[in-house]
Specification:
- The protein has nine helices and 14 strands.
- By secondary structure, the chain is of the alpha/beta class.
- Strand 8 and strand 9 form a beta hairpin.
- The chain is globular, with a radius of gyration of 20 Å.
- The termini are far apart.
Length: 324
């Protein structure tokens, strides 16, 4: 099934595999099966992707969402404030996650060995349980470049490193939380030609919230780049979507985004209007591939999407909390 998932070539293939995965998870995931039963949804009635029930993401906080009886390889946990309940994603095969993010990165950016990967994120050892840090840590090692590494509080050293590498013509990927990237450009003005700046979101608790468009305008000026890239992922997913600018995200072939009506959570939008983000992540084969998030967004006919906000009163979340 892994081979099929990561080699999807068409919408027809995606639909066929998604329905197969749904059947598998209906039979083997007690939490998801109970949810489907409450909605009176059975595989015999599901012939289209949009009819598949999407499990509310909050279940990852209160239940063990698993479609496998294999031993747990890793438990990824969401960042959270003191006392808040965090999500837990139980991963029975860590190689599926590795395959997903390597193939996803290659799909959008090519061979990671072509880059020096600089991470303005907490070191993996400082924040156990972060799926983002796990991924970036592995990308750093797989880049096979001695210059790649994590940075958190040593902004002076990071600034010198970026300028030095960029001047040499080295392709650089700087991935970081929003508030830390802002801290960096307040300390140093850059004029970069060979560096990709990728933000992973996050201002909560550290700076005043600003919309993505305003953030990107400030970052573009500070780094002197034409576009700011973005990564869209979360603890509950084993795949990531990427934006190469303007906040418009693309998914790898085994991942798709739908939006649900904000007034009727069981109705999928058929037009380009704002709605709740529903994610299909077929890499989540051993947990749940059909998740209703708390994000608000809009999908477009070509399969791209953008995030416009979050539902009111939803929990604070964001990779920035990893460093609080």
């Amino acid at each position: 099934m892994q081979e099929k998932i990561f080699n999807i070539q068409s919408q027809e293939e995606f639909t066929k595999i998604a329905l197969t995965v749904f059947n598998h998870q209906f039979k083997n995931n007690k939490v998801y099966r109970s949810f489907c039963d409450l909605l009176y949804k059975h595989p015999s009635e599901i012939t289209q992707v949009k009819d598949i029930p999407f499990l509310p993401i909050q279940f990852f906080k209160s239940r063990k969402v698993l479609s496998s009886i294999d031993e747990i390889d890793e438990i990824f946990t969401s960042s959270g404030t003191t006392g808040s309940v965090t999500s837990k994603h139980f991963v029975t095969d860590i190689n599926i996650y590795k395959q997903s993010y390597f193939k996803g990165f290659a799909h959008f950016y090519g061979n990671v060995e072509d880059y020096v990967v600089l991470a303005l994120l907490p070191n993996y050892l400082e924040r156990k349980g972060s799926s983002l840090v796990f991924m970036v840590d592995d990308l750093i090692r797989k880049s096979n470049n001695i210059e790649s590494g994590f940075y958190l509080n040593n902004l002076d050293e990071l600034a010198k490193k970026i300028i030095e590498l960029d001047k040499k013509g080295q392709k650089v990927l700087l991935i970081g939380v929003s508030f830390a990237l802002l801290d960096l450009i307040e300390m140093e003005q850059f004029a970069l030609k060979n560096t990709i700046i990728m933000e992973t979101g996050g201002m909560k608790g550290r700076r005043k919230e600003i919309i993505r468009q305003e953030l990107h305008t400030i970052l573009k000026k500070g780094f002197s780049v034409d576009k700011i890239h973005s990564e869209y992922g979360m603890t509950e997913l084993l795949s990531q979507a990427y934006s190469k600018g303007d906040g418009i995200f693309e998914t790898p072939p085994w991942m798709q985004i739908l939006t649900r009506d904000t007034e009727d959570a069981l109705t999928i939008n058929t037009t380009e209007k704002n709605g709740g983000i529903n994610v299909i992540d077929l890499a989540n084969y051993n947990s749940c591939s059909f998740i209703a998030t708390q994000d608000l967004g809009k999908t477009y006919k070509n399969g791209t999407f953008e995030i416009v906000g979050r539902f009111d009163n939803s929990d604070i979340r964001g990779c920035n909390l990893m460093v609080l």
